[in-house]
Structures are given as structure tokens and as C-alpha cells.
Amino acid sequence: MNPGAAGPGAAPVPGPDPAIPLALYLHFPWCVQKCPYCDFNSHALRGETPEDAYVEALVRDLEHELQDGERRPLASIFMGGGTPSLFSGRAIGRVLEEVGRRLSFAPGIEITLEANPGTADASHFRGYRAAGVNRLSIGAQSLDAAQLKKLGRIHDPGQAVDALRLARAAGFDNINLDLMFALPQQTQTEALADLDGVLALQPEHVSWYQLTLEPNTEFAARPPPLPDDDAVAAMFDAGQQRLADAGYAQYEVSAYARPGRRARHNLNYWEFGDYLGIGAGAHGKRSGPAGVVRRARHKHPRRYQETAGTPAAVQEQRRLSAQEMPVEFMLNVLRLNAGVAASLWEQRTGLPLSALDLPLAEARRRGLMEADPALLRPTALGHRHLNRLLELFL
């Protein structure tokens, strides 16, 4: 590791606008068991959840991260994993209390916690709501019992439905449900039945995304039989129409929301905002006079807890070069259906828009980007061939 590295032969990027919004991501690395498709930093829990020790490590880590005197208010907080709902409301409350002692919260801050239906109960949800969590993201993934078994999930369809009911009873009025499609041997009829079941629960937000085989997962090593490309495309088109008819507007590749319910934390990522990454394996991005710096913590929970609060907790750190910035920026903003104002490039990177002249001209010539010079937005063709579009900015 070379924490000060900017990349071989790379010039540092000028300082971006200090008004870039700031979010906080907190990672909770344990699950009851590892799902065969999951490439996130998650570890099967052995024994009791080490709540107090891990919360103390998060606090030490945050304090060290803030040694430079960060003063921006937090626009959002997201607690992901792993399975944060393995932690009690008391533990989550302490985390948020300690964060609030060190950073101010913007008015109307969005505070999200990921919950697994297999670890959900009424007392936990009431505790989270009392602690200040105001948005839940529930990982249903499917409402088909056979598919849940294939996916290695520990819950059944009834528990997924009950989790949303319990969340409502605890006072949550902003809920996301995660749902996958293109599952092993899944037909279009089955995929749409799954989606209809989720829509009947009337969440405020749906994350509807295709199952993909990620490297270093069990599914990658032993691939299950998945629908072919034509079947997947048909599922996607039919599902998009179902979501639109139910009042959910697509605003990102796999994100659909009712009016006013877009995920503000995720929007900050996609708009190239800043975020602190605290916890085992957490990634962060911060902008300052020296440019844009990305950091990642140690992935293994034990190693992370041993080093939290010291420089050794950071396993990787790099400052983005001017050459890297176009693809880093576009990798996020081009996921958004509406795109972003072209002025956001200079505000978030500190670089002139002219740095994008050549790739933008080529993208527009190929019909992959809208021609409006005030907007950075893919065309419908660009959305369908997003990887090809991103290659132009490498």
C-alpha cells in the first residue's frame, strides 16, 4: 500500500468545490450465512454478534477519519452489510448518537438501514425507528420459496411479507424492497409474478436488478442455469412496464421510486458526491484541495477491529489522477436516466469541461449521448449499451 500514491505518472487533480455534499456509509460485515451470489464483504457469523466491540471500532475509525476537521453536515447515512439487522436497536442507536456528536446532520437527513427478513423482528424495528433510522431497505430478493432456496436465503416468502408489515407497524413510511430477476431457470411469467407480489406490498421504492455471476462467488465457481439474453431482455421490458403502471418511475439502472422517494444516499454516489466509508471493507471518497481521494478499510472484521482508529485500518488509498477522472465520474452519472447538468463535472472534479471534449464528441456521433451541451445524459441507445459508452471515457 502507498497511501499517498496518485497513480504512475499521474498529475494530481485540482481541488473540487468545497460545497460537495457529504454522506456516511457504515458497514456491518456479518451475515447468518453467505449467499452463493454475493460478492459483498460479508462473513458468516460464528457465535454471538459482537455488538459493543464493533460499535467501539466504528467510533474509533470515524474519529480518526475526521482528524482533518471535516465540518460538512451529513446529507444521508446508510448502514449496509452484511446484515445490519443482526444488531439491536440499542447498538444502532449508540452508533447514530456517536456520529451525531462528531458531525452535524442536515435538516431532513435520510438514515437508511438494510434489513434481512430472516433477522427481522418487531422489537428490532421499533428500536431502529426510535434510534433515528427513517428508511429501511429490506432484502426480499424473491417471493418464490423455491428460488429463495436456490439463492441460499435464510427466509421464506412469508417472512419477507411479515418484515414489511412489522416495519410499517414500527412507524416506517419509507421502505425499499430489493428484488432480483433472471434467477436460475426463471421464466418471464415467474419473474413478473415475483414483481407483482412486491408491488402489492406497496413499498415506496423498489430496487429491481438482474442476478449476475460475480467473480469469487459460489455461483461463479458453479454457475446455475440462467435465462438466456433474449429471455432476460423480455423480462426487463415487461417488468419496467409493470413498475411504470404501478406508479414507480425509473431514475437509475435498477432503481424505481414513487414521487419524492428516490434514495438520496445512492443519488449522492451517482452524482459523484463525497462519502465517508467506515467499517470493515468500507469504501469512501473525499474531495479536497489535493483532489479526490478514495480509501478502503481492511475487509476482515478481526483485522479491522484491531486497527480501527489508526492509519493501519486503511488497506488501500489512492488519489485520482486527471486521466482517471472521466471514467470515474461517468461510471456513476451515466447510470441516471435524467443524466446531470454538464456544470456538475467541473464542480465535482475541479477540471474544465473541455477535458471531456473528445469522448463526448465521439459518444454523440455514435448516438450514445444526448446532443445538448448543457447536459451529460445517455440516449436510450446509450443506456442499452452502457459499457460500450463508458469505454469511450477510459
Automatic annotation (TrEMBL):
Protein's name according to its UniProt entry: Heme chaperone HemW
Keywords: 4Fe-4S, Chaperone, Cytoplasm, Heme, Iron, Iron-sulfur, Metal-binding, S-adenosyl-L-methionine
Gene Ontology CC: cytoplasm
Domain of life according to the entry: Bacteria
UniProt key word Ligase: no
Protein task: Probably acts as a heme chaperone, transferring heme to an unknown acceptor. Binds one molecule of heme per monomer, possibly covalently. Binds 1 [4Fe-4S] cluster. The cluster is coordinated with 3 cysteines and an exchangeable S-adenosyl-L-methionine.
GO MF term (any one): coproporphyrinogen oxidase activity
A Pfam family of this chain: HemN_C
Domain Radical SAM core: 16-249
Cofactors that this protein relies on: [4Fe-4S] cluster
Gene3D superfamilies assigned: Aldolase class I
Subcellular location: Cytoplasm
GO biological process: porphyrin-containing compound biosynthetic process
Family assignment from sequence similarity: Belongs to the anaerobic coproporphyrinogen-III oxidase family. HemW subfamily.
